[in-house]
Amino acid sequence: MITDVKQPGEARIVDDALLACATGDKTALRRIYDAEAGRMLGVAQRLLKRRALAEEAVQDAFVLIWRHAARFDPQRGSGQNWIYAILRNRSISVLRDERRTETRENPLTEELASEEDDPETIISKLSDAKALRACLEPLPPQRRGIVLLAFVQGLTHGEIAGKLSLPLGTVKTWIRRSLMTLKTCLG
Questions:
Q1: How far is CA 1 from CA 7, 35, 88, 153, in A?
Q2: Which residues contact 162 (CB under 8 A, 6 or more apart)?
Q3: What's residue 129's pLDDT?
Q4: Are 90 and 63 in contact (CB under 8 A)?
Q5: Domain boundaries, the chain
Q6: 123 and 136 Cβ atoms separated by less than 8 Å
Q7: Alpha-carbon dihedral angle through residues 159, 165, 170, 172, given to the nearest 10 degrees
Q8: What is the pLDDT of residues 128-171, one digit of tens each?
Q9: CATH of domain 110-186
């Protein structure tokens, strides 16, 4: 259970910032981030046991905080409790997704599971999926590699970011854009 250890005036800052976020004030989200991000990362890391996953959960939590700030009701509880509930729920979802990835069968074939293979070798093994292969080839090599790491080797966005030393947001954006391109191509 997360307890509120701040002074009432400091807790009120988060409440006020959430109400301002609901009106579209981006600087209010920054105030929440400055006040709580470090502590949120610590909570997420305790729940998820890995920093990359914790960073992913905190980033996702801030996106949800921004999107759903209008749902915050100070009459029902403190802003801090509200944002930590979002973080906890997001961390549980990340953990659930991680377990699903770890327990599922290999998505394509046994031969694709090798972690030693680079993305180009994996593409050459996709001989049974010619349409997918044809749609993957026009993608820039780094974006194609990230898609394959995510969907063939089953790495999370956070793991890919750590492995390639890229910002997590960049990895997420490249995967999303690449998937949109593949969806269009595969029609």
A1: 18, 20, 10, 35
A2: 52
A3: 59
A4: no
A5: 8-103, 110-186
A6: yes
A7: -10
A8: 457 777 888 888 888 888 888 887 777 888 888 888 888 888 89
A9: 1.10.10.10
Nearest to 152 by CA among 175, 169, 134: 175
Looking at residue 19, the DSSP 8-state letter turns out to be: H
76-123: pLDDT as tens digits: 888 889 999 999 989 888 887 766 554 444 444 444 445 556 665 655
- CATH code given to domain 8-103: 1.10.1740.10
Q: What is the DSSP letter of 73?
A: -
The pTM of this model reads 0.51
* Both tokens assigned to 155: 């790495």
The answer on pLDDT for 27 being more than 90 is yes
Radius of gyration of the chain (CA): 20
